[in-house]
């Protein structure tokens, strides 16, 4: 059981480049999330998708876009990367929102130079 | 806004001792809490959860205590082992249930 799988694991981008982080879950979960993790700060929500076909902004959405491709997949796109987007990104999923356990992927380390 | 905080950023314990990691939350309306363990270079791993209608919940070697009066959450790890060395986060469910808010974490080091 793979759980939540995200790619790539590591990426280095130049300022202004674009890229997409891919995420897939095999737990038949309805809700999916993208978080970023920075030193000294807790996980912060970028975007979430409560169910297939819906997406909503989280706490720090600026500079990002998302696509809920189907029930399994939820991608995060950086259109024009900035050094401030250097971070570790985690995809997560849960059966539903509101009082349900969130399960995380292994993370994607992104450096913008 | 909501905030989730930890009393101590680091904790060192001797192997075999019990560990206690604390967490304060600010939203009295929060009704679901989770503890996660994060090892270096990995994603957060679910340890145990508790709902606001409970004061205590036990798992394998772990116990979570919830004190709603003072809005405090703690994680107790019995007979701490070297494999328990990691960063531990608490997470709090927001008012609307759409989002969890995470603390910055406590780094637990187990001394052999």
Summarize the structure.
The complex is a heterodimer of chains A (113) and B (112). Helices cover 0% and strands 49% of the residues of chain A.
Description:
The complex is a heterodimer of chains A (113) and B (112). Chain A has strands at 4-7, 10-13, 19-25, 31-37, 44-49, 56-57, 64-68, 74-78, 87-94, 103-104, 108-112. Chain A has 113 residues and is mainly β. In chain A, strands 2, 4, 5, 6, 9, 10 and 11 form a 7-stranded mixed beta sheet that branches. A 4-stranded antiparallel beta sheet of chain A has the order 1-3-8-7, with no helix packed on it. Chain A is globular and about 35 Å long. The mean pLDDT of chain A is 94. Chain B is built from no helices and 11 strands. Chain B has strands spanning 4-5, 10-14, 19-25, 32-38, 45-51, 56-58, 62-67, 72-77, 86-93, 100-102, 106-111. Chain B is globular and about 45 Å long. Classes of the chains: A mainly beta (113), B mainly beta (112). At the A-B interface, strand 5 and strand 10 of A face strand 4, strand 5, strand 9 and strand 10 of B.
């Amino acid at each position: 059981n793979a759980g939540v799988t995200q790619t790539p694991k590591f990426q280095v981008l130049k300022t202004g480049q674009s890229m997409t982080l891919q995420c897939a879950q095999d737990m038949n979960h309805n809700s999916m999330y993208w978080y970023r993790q920075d030193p000294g700060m807790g996980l912060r929500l970028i975007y979430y998708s409560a169910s297939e076909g819906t997406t909503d902004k989280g706490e720090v959405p600026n500079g990002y876009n998302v696509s809920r491709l189907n029930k399994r997949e939820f991608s995060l796109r950086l259109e024009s990367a900035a050094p401030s987007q250097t971070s570790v990104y985690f995809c997560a999923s849960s059966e539903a929102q509101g009082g349900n356990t969130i399960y995380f992927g292994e993370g994607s380390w992104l450096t913008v130079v | 806004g909501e905030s989730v905080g930890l009393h101590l950023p680091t904790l060192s314990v001797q192997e075999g001792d019990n560990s206690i990691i604390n967490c304060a939350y600010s939203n009295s309306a929060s009704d679901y809490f989770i503890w996660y363990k994060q090892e270096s270079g990995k994603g957060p791993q679910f340890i145990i959860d508790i709902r606001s209608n409970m004061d205590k919940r036990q798992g394998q070697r772990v116990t979570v205590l919830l004190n709603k009066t003072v809005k405090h959450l703690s994680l107790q790890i019995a007979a701490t082992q070297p494999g328990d060395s990691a960063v531990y986060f608490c997470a709090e469910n927001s008012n609307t249930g759409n989002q969890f808010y995470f603390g910055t974490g406590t780094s637990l080091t187990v001394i052999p």
